[in-house]
Amino acid sequence: MNEVYINKIAKFLPNAPIGNDEMEAYLGKINDRESKARRIVLRNNGIRTRYYALSKDGEPTHTNAQLTAEAVYGLFDERVQASDVELLSCGTSSPDYLMPSHAVMVHGELGNRNMEVNSAAGNCCAGMNALKFGYLSVKSGNTKNAVCTGSERMSSWMLADHFGKEVESLKELEEQPIIAFNKDFLRWMLSDGAAAVLLENEPQGELPLRVEWMEGYSYAHELPVCMYAGGDKLASGVLKSFSDYHSEEWLIQSIFAVKQDTKLLDKYILPKGVESMQQAMNKHGITPNDIDYLLPHVSSHYFVDGLYEGFANAGIEIDRSKWFMNLKDVGNVGAGSVYLMLEELVRSGKLKKGQHIMLCVPESARFTYAYAYLTVC
Protein backbone atom coordinates (compact mmCIF):
# COMPACT_ATOMS: atom_id res chain seq x y z
CA MET A 1 0.00 0.00 0.00
CA ASN A 2 1.20 3.50 -0.83
CA GLU A 3 1.66 6.39 1.53
CA VAL A 4 -0.71 9.28 0.78
CA TYR A 5 0.27 12.94 1.05
CA ILE A 6 -1.64 16.19 0.90
CA ASN A 7 0.87 18.15 -1.14
CA LYS A 8 -1.17 21.26 -1.84
CA ILE A 9 -4.38 22.90 -0.66
CA ALA A 10 -6.30 25.82 -2.14
CA LYS A 11 -9.54 27.70 -1.47
CA PHE A 12 -12.01 30.00 -3.15
CA LEU A 13 -14.31 32.33 -1.19
CA PRO A 14 -16.70 34.32 -3.39
CA ASN A 15 -17.00 38.10 -3.36
CA ALA A 16 -16.33 40.25 -0.27
CA PRO A 17 -16.90 39.15 3.34
CA ILE A 18 -20.39 39.99 4.65
CA GLY A 19 -20.97 41.27 8.18
CA ASN A 20 -23.89 40.30 10.40
CA ASP A 21 -25.81 43.52 9.78
CA GLU A 22 -25.58 43.05 5.99
CA MET A 23 -27.04 39.55 5.80
CA GLU A 24 -30.68 40.47 5.23
CA ALA A 25 -29.62 42.88 2.47
CA TYR A 26 -28.43 39.83 0.53
CA LEU A 27 -30.92 37.17 1.66
CA GLY A 28 -33.96 39.43 1.91
CA LYS A 29 -36.58 39.77 4.63
CA ILE A 30 -39.34 37.19 4.87
CA ASN A 31 -42.72 38.97 4.82
CA ASP A 32 -40.74 42.26 4.75
CA ARG A 33 -39.96 41.86 8.44
CA GLU A 34 -36.63 41.52 10.20
CA SER A 35 -36.07 38.03 11.53
CA LYS A 36 -36.62 37.66 15.27
CA ALA A 37 -34.28 34.67 15.30
CA ARG A 38 -31.35 36.39 13.57
CA ARG A 39 -29.78 38.24 16.51
CA ILE A 40 -30.24 35.30 18.90
CA VAL A 41 -28.68 32.83 16.47
CA LEU A 42 -25.77 35.13 15.60
CA ARG A 43 -25.05 35.88 19.24
CA ASN A 44 -24.76 32.15 19.95
CA ASN A 45 -22.87 31.05 16.86
CA GLY A 46 -20.19 33.76 17.16
CA ILE A 47 -19.85 34.22 13.39
CA ARG A 48 -18.81 37.77 12.45
CA THR A 49 -18.35 37.47 8.67
CA ARG A 50 -19.19 34.97 5.94
CA TYR A 51 -19.24 34.76 2.12
CA TYR A 52 -22.15 34.50 -0.30
CA ALA A 53 -22.09 33.69 -4.00
CA LEU A 54 -24.72 36.42 -4.41
CA SER A 55 -24.89 40.02 -5.47
CA LYS A 56 -26.58 42.43 -3.09
CA ASP A 57 -29.84 42.14 -5.04
CA GLY A 58 -29.85 38.37 -4.46
CA GLU A 59 -28.62 37.34 -7.90
CA PRO A 60 -26.17 34.39 -8.03
CA THR A 61 -22.58 35.14 -8.97
CA HIS A 62 -21.32 31.53 -9.03
CA THR A 63 -22.73 28.03 -9.08
CA ASN A 64 -21.45 25.46 -6.59
CA ALA A 65 -19.59 23.75 -9.45
CA GLN A 66 -17.92 27.04 -10.39
CA LEU A 67 -16.88 27.74 -6.78
CA THR A 68 -15.35 24.27 -6.59
CA ALA A 69 -13.58 24.57 -9.93
CA GLU A 70 -12.03 27.89 -8.84
CA ALA A 71 -10.62 26.18 -5.74
CA VAL A 72 -9.27 23.31 -7.84
CA TYR A 73 -7.53 25.74 -10.23
CA GLY A 74 -5.52 26.96 -7.23
CA LEU A 75 -3.83 23.55 -6.97
CA PHE A 76 -2.18 23.70 -10.36
CA ASP A 77 1.30 24.98 -11.11
CA GLU A 78 4.26 24.10 -13.34
CA ARG A 79 4.65 20.70 -11.67
CA VAL A 80 1.03 19.56 -11.63
CA GLN A 81 -1.47 20.69 -14.23
CA ALA A 82 -5.15 19.95 -14.77
CA SER A 83 -4.31 17.32 -17.38
CA ASP A 84 -2.31 15.33 -14.79
CA VAL A 85 -5.26 14.69 -12.47
CA GLU A 86 -6.40 11.05 -12.44
CA LEU A 87 -9.33 11.29 -9.99
CA LEU A 88 -11.72 14.07 -8.97
CA SER A 89 -13.68 13.45 -5.76
CA CYS A 90 -16.12 16.17 -4.66
CA GLY A 91 -18.31 16.50 -1.59
CA THR A 92 -21.15 18.93 -0.92
CA SER A 93 -24.56 19.12 0.70
CA SER A 94 -25.80 21.80 -1.72
CA PRO A 95 -25.30 20.53 -5.28
CA ASP A 96 -26.64 22.69 -8.09
CA TYR A 97 -28.86 19.86 -9.34
CA LEU A 98 -30.49 16.64 -8.19
CA MET A 99 -28.76 15.18 -11.23
CA PRO A 100 -26.19 15.16 -12.82
CA SER A 101 -23.96 14.72 -9.80
CA HIS A 102 -21.86 17.53 -8.36
CA ALA A 103 -18.49 16.00 -9.32
CA VAL A 104 -19.34 15.61 -13.01
CA MET A 105 -20.48 19.24 -13.11
CA VAL A 106 -17.17 20.32 -11.57
CA HIS A 107 -15.38 18.12 -14.09
CA GLY A 108 -17.32 19.88 -16.84
CA GLU A 109 -16.16 23.26 -15.53
CA LEU A 110 -12.52 22.07 -15.50
CA GLY A 111 -12.72 20.61 -18.99
CA ASN A 112 -9.36 18.95 -18.50
CA ARG A 113 -9.36 15.26 -19.50
CA ASN A 114 -11.17 11.94 -19.28
CA MET A 115 -10.82 10.75 -15.68
CA GLU A 116 -12.59 9.03 -12.81
CA VAL A 117 -15.00 11.17 -10.78
CA ASN A 118 -16.77 10.57 -7.48
CA SER A 119 -19.57 12.56 -5.84
CA ALA A 120 -19.98 12.34 -2.07
CA ALA A 121 -23.47 13.37 -0.96
CA GLY A 122 -24.68 14.13 2.55
CA ASN A 123 -23.97 17.11 4.75
CA CYS A 124 -20.80 18.26 6.51
CA CYS A 125 -19.15 14.83 6.28
CA ALA A 126 -19.50 14.86 2.48
CA GLY A 127 -16.18 16.70 2.18
CA MET A 128 -14.43 14.12 4.37
CA ASN A 129 -16.06 11.26 2.47
CA ALA A 130 -14.75 12.76 -0.76
CA LEU A 131 -11.29 12.96 0.82
CA LYS A 132 -11.47 9.35 1.97
CA PHE A 133 -12.37 8.11 -1.51
CA GLY A 134 -9.31 9.88 -2.91
CA TYR A 135 -7.13 8.70 -0.01
CA LEU A 136 -8.09 5.05 -0.56
CA SER A 137 -7.61 5.33 -4.31
CA VAL A 138 -4.06 6.65 -3.97
CA LYS A 139 -3.23 4.31 -1.08
CA SER A 140 -4.33 1.24 -3.03
CA GLY A 141 -2.45 2.28 -6.15
CA ASN A 142 -5.63 2.71 -8.18
CA THR A 143 -4.42 6.23 -8.99
CA LYS A 144 -1.17 8.10 -8.38
CA ASN A 145 -3.01 11.28 -7.44
CA ALA A 146 -6.45 12.64 -6.62
CA VAL A 147 -8.07 16.04 -6.25
CA CYS A 148 -10.62 16.13 -3.41
CA THR A 149 -12.95 19.00 -2.61
CA GLY A 150 -15.49 20.26 -0.11
CA SER A 151 -17.85 23.08 -1.04
CA GLU A 152 -21.20 24.72 -0.40
CA ARG A 153 -23.45 27.28 -2.02
CA MET A 154 -26.23 27.52 0.55
CA SER A 155 -27.03 31.23 0.16
CA SER A 156 -29.35 30.68 -2.79
CA TRP A 157 -31.35 28.18 -0.71
CA MET A 158 -31.93 30.80 1.99
CA LEU A 159 -33.35 33.68 -0.05
CA ALA A 160 -36.52 35.19 1.40
CA ASP A 161 -38.29 34.78 -1.93
CA HIS A 162 -38.30 30.98 -1.47
CA PHE A 163 -40.60 31.36 1.55
CA GLY A 164 -43.10 33.72 -0.11
CA LYS A 165 -45.76 31.12 -0.93
CA GLU A 166 -45.66 29.70 2.59
CA VAL A 167 -46.18 33.19 4.06
CA GLU A 168 -49.10 33.83 1.69
CA SER A 169 -50.68 30.52 2.67
CA LEU A 170 -50.36 31.32 6.38
CA LYS A 171 -52.06 34.68 5.80
CA GLU A 172 -54.93 33.02 3.93
CA LEU A 173 -55.40 30.65 6.86
CA GLU A 174 -55.38 33.69 9.16
CA GLU A 175 -52.34 32.36 10.95
CA GLN A 176 -49.27 34.32 12.04
CA PRO A 177 -47.11 34.66 8.88
CA ILE A 178 -43.87 33.73 10.63
CA ILE A 179 -41.57 31.01 9.30
CA ALA A 180 -40.88 28.23 11.81
CA PHE A 181 -37.64 28.51 13.78
CA ASN A 182 -36.30 25.22 12.34
CA LYS A 183 -36.15 26.95 8.94
CA ASP A 184 -35.25 30.50 9.97
CA PHE A 185 -32.46 29.26 12.28
CA LEU A 186 -30.30 27.96 9.43
CA ARG A 187 -30.60 31.15 7.37
CA TRP A 188 -28.13 32.74 9.81
CA MET A 189 -25.78 29.75 10.12
CA LEU A 190 -24.64 28.75 6.62
CA SER A 191 -22.10 30.19 4.18
CA ASP A 192 -20.62 29.67 0.72
CA GLY A 193 -17.14 28.66 -0.38
CA ALA A 194 -14.93 25.84 -1.61
CA ALA A 195 -11.53 24.31 -0.98
CA ALA A 196 -9.52 21.53 -2.59
CA VAL A 197 -6.54 19.32 -1.82
CA LEU A 198 -4.09 17.50 -4.05
CA LEU A 199 -3.28 13.98 -2.90
CA GLU A 200 -0.21 12.17 -4.26
CA ASN A 201 1.71 8.99 -3.47
CA GLU A 202 4.98 10.85 -2.88
CA PRO A 203 5.69 13.94 -0.74
CA GLN A 204 6.17 17.19 -2.60
CA GLY A 205 6.48 20.81 -1.52
CA GLU A 206 7.74 22.44 1.67
CA LEU A 207 5.52 20.76 4.28
CA PRO A 208 3.49 17.90 2.84
CA LEU A 209 0.95 16.27 5.15
CA ARG A 210 0.90 12.47 5.29
CA VAL A 211 -2.58 11.02 5.80
CA GLU A 212 -2.08 8.36 8.47
CA TRP A 213 -5.68 7.17 8.70
CA MET A 214 -9.32 8.15 8.28
CA GLU A 215 -12.38 6.90 10.17
CA GLY A 216 -16.13 7.42 9.90
CA TYR A 217 -19.06 6.60 12.20
CA SER A 218 -22.82 6.77 11.63
CA TYR A 219 -25.47 6.61 14.35
CA ALA A 220 -28.44 6.48 11.97
CA HIS A 221 -29.24 2.99 13.27
CA GLU A 222 -30.28 4.47 16.61
CA LEU A 223 -30.97 8.19 16.12
CA PRO A 224 -33.64 10.04 14.09
CA VAL A 225 -33.21 12.61 11.32
CA CYS A 226 -32.14 16.02 12.62
CA MET A 227 -31.21 18.19 9.59
CA TYR A 228 -32.90 17.77 6.23
CA ALA A 229 -34.06 19.36 2.98
CA GLY A 230 -36.35 18.14 0.21
CA GLY A 231 -38.81 16.64 2.67
CA ASP A 232 -40.63 17.23 5.92
CA LYS A 233 -41.13 15.41 9.18
CA LEU A 234 -44.53 13.92 9.95
CA ALA A 235 -45.99 13.85 13.45
CA SER A 236 -44.73 10.27 13.75
CA GLY A 237 -41.16 11.46 13.17
CA VAL A 238 -40.97 9.78 9.76
CA LEU A 239 -39.37 11.88 7.02
CA LYS A 240 -41.61 12.30 3.97
CA SER A 241 -39.85 12.90 0.64
CA PHE A 242 -40.64 15.80 -1.67
CA SER A 243 -41.51 13.24 -4.35
CA ASP A 244 -44.44 12.09 -2.19
CA TYR A 245 -45.91 15.58 -1.88
CA HIS A 246 -48.09 17.29 -4.50
CA SER A 247 -46.09 19.85 -6.42
CA GLU A 248 -48.14 22.78 -5.07
CA GLU A 249 -47.16 21.73 -1.53
CA TRP A 250 -43.47 22.16 -2.37
CA LEU A 251 -43.86 25.96 -2.22
CA ILE A 252 -46.66 26.27 0.33
CA GLN A 253 -44.75 24.20 2.89
CA SER A 254 -41.23 25.24 1.80
CA ILE A 255 -40.40 21.57 1.35
CA PHE A 256 -36.98 22.29 -0.16
CA ALA A 257 -35.89 24.62 2.64
CA VAL A 258 -33.07 23.38 4.87
CA LYS A 259 -34.50 22.53 8.29
CA GLN A 260 -33.03 21.44 11.60
CA ASP A 261 -34.52 19.99 14.76
CA THR A 262 -32.52 22.04 17.27
CA LYS A 263 -33.69 19.95 20.23
CA LEU A 264 -32.22 16.79 18.70
CA LEU A 265 -29.07 18.71 17.76
CA ASP A 266 -28.54 19.89 21.33
CA LYS A 267 -29.23 16.44 22.77
CA TYR A 268 -27.00 14.26 20.60
CA ILE A 269 -24.37 16.16 18.61
CA LEU A 270 -21.79 16.44 21.42
CA PRO A 271 -22.21 13.05 23.18
CA LYS A 272 -21.93 11.12 19.93
CA GLY A 273 -19.02 13.30 18.85
CA VAL A 274 -17.14 12.46 22.04
CA GLU A 275 -18.02 8.76 21.72
CA SER A 276 -16.83 8.51 18.10
CA MET A 277 -13.65 10.53 18.74
CA GLN A 278 -12.75 8.25 21.61
CA GLN A 279 -13.43 5.20 19.43
CA ALA A 280 -11.19 6.49 16.63
CA MET A 281 -8.34 7.38 19.01
CA ASN A 282 -8.54 4.03 20.81
CA LYS A 283 -8.56 2.11 17.53
CA HIS A 284 -5.31 3.76 16.42
CA GLY A 285 -3.67 3.96 19.84
CA ILE A 286 -3.24 7.71 20.05
CA THR A 287 -3.65 10.02 23.05
CA PRO A 288 -4.14 13.80 23.38
CA ASN A 289 -0.34 14.09 23.57
CA ASP A 290 -0.21 12.80 19.98
CA ILE A 291 -2.29 15.73 18.71
CA ASP A 292 -0.57 19.08 18.09
CA TYR A 293 -3.52 20.70 16.32
CA LEU A 294 -7.19 19.81 16.56
CA LEU A 295 -9.34 21.16 13.72
CA PRO A 296 -12.95 20.63 14.87
CA HIS A 297 -15.73 21.63 12.52
CA VAL A 298 -18.44 23.16 14.68
CA SER A 299 -21.52 24.90 13.31
CA SER A 300 -21.55 27.34 16.20
CA HIS A 301 -19.23 28.55 18.97
CA TYR A 302 -22.14 27.66 21.25
CA PHE A 303 -20.86 24.05 21.17
CA VAL A 304 -17.14 24.66 21.75
CA ASP A 305 -17.07 24.67 25.56
CA GLY A 306 -19.38 21.66 25.74
CA LEU A 307 -17.20 19.71 23.29
CA TYR A 308 -14.06 20.51 25.29
CA GLU A 309 -15.72 19.40 28.53
CA GLY A 310 -17.08 16.25 26.88
CA PHE A 311 -13.60 15.30 25.69
CA ALA A 312 -12.13 16.03 29.13
CA ASN A 313 -14.77 13.95 30.92
CA ALA A 314 -14.06 11.06 28.55
CA GLY A 315 -10.34 11.16 29.34
CA ILE A 316 -9.30 12.72 26.04
CA GLU A 317 -8.79 16.33 27.12
CA ILE A 318 -7.10 18.29 24.36
CA ASP A 319 -5.70 21.63 25.53
CA ARG A 320 -7.54 24.57 24.02
CA SER A 321 -4.24 26.02 22.80
CA LYS A 322 -4.20 23.16 20.26
CA TRP A 323 -7.62 24.01 18.80
CA PHE A 324 -7.49 25.79 15.44
CA MET A 325 -10.73 27.26 14.05
CA ASN A 326 -11.80 30.00 11.62
CA LEU A 327 -15.59 29.89 12.01
CA LYS A 328 -15.82 33.53 13.16
CA ASP A 329 -14.32 34.89 9.95
CA VAL A 330 -15.29 32.34 7.28
CA GLY A 331 -18.62 31.08 8.60
CA ASN A 332 -20.04 27.57 8.49
CA VAL A 333 -19.24 26.24 5.02
CA GLY A 334 -20.49 22.73 5.79
CA ALA A 335 -18.60 20.17 3.71
CA GLY A 336 -15.90 22.73 2.95
CA SER A 337 -15.22 23.93 6.49
CA VAL A 338 -12.53 21.43 7.48
CA TYR A 339 -10.68 22.03 4.19
CA LEU A 340 -10.79 25.79 4.83
CA MET A 341 -9.43 25.35 8.35
CA LEU A 342 -6.61 23.15 7.09
CA GLU A 343 -5.74 25.60 4.31
CA GLU A 344 -5.52 28.47 6.80
CA LEU A 345 -3.41 26.45 9.23
CA VAL A 346 -0.96 25.44 6.48
CA ARG A 347 -0.76 29.04 5.27
CA SER A 348 -0.23 30.38 8.81
CA GLY A 349 3.37 29.16 8.97
CA LYS A 350 2.78 27.56 12.37
CA LEU A 351 3.34 23.96 11.30
CA LYS A 352 6.60 22.12 11.98
CA LYS A 353 7.85 18.77 10.76
CA GLY A 354 6.74 15.87 12.92
CA GLN A 355 3.59 17.57 14.23
CA HIS A 356 0.23 15.80 14.08
CA ILE A 357 -3.15 17.24 13.04
CA MET A 358 -6.56 15.77 13.83
CA LEU A 359 -9.48 16.67 11.58
CA CYS A 360 -12.82 16.24 13.35
CA VAL A 361 -16.12 16.65 11.47
CA PRO A 362 -19.62 16.05 12.86
CA GLU A 363 -22.76 15.94 10.74
CA SER A 364 -26.15 16.42 12.33
CA ALA A 365 -28.28 15.19 9.41
CA ARG A 366 -28.61 11.80 11.10
CA PHE A 367 -25.51 12.08 13.29
CA THR A 368 -22.43 11.02 11.36
CA TYR A 369 -18.81 11.75 12.29
CA ALA A 370 -15.57 11.65 10.31
CA TYR A 371 -11.91 11.89 11.39
CA ALA A 372 -8.51 12.13 9.75
CA TYR A 373 -5.05 12.05 11.34
CA LEU A 374 -2.22 13.82 9.52
CA THR A 375 1.54 14.09 10.05
CA VAL A 376 3.56 17.10 8.91
CA CYS A 377 6.49 15.78 6.85
TrEMBL record:
Keyword Cytoplasm (UniProt): no
Pfam family, one: ACP_syn_III_C
Keywords attached to this entry: Acyltransferase, Transferase
Protein known as: Beta-ketoacyl-ACP synthase III
Source organism per UniProt: Sphingobacterium suaedae
Chain ranges of the Beta-ketoacyl-[acyl-carrier-protein] synthase III C-terminal domain: 282-360
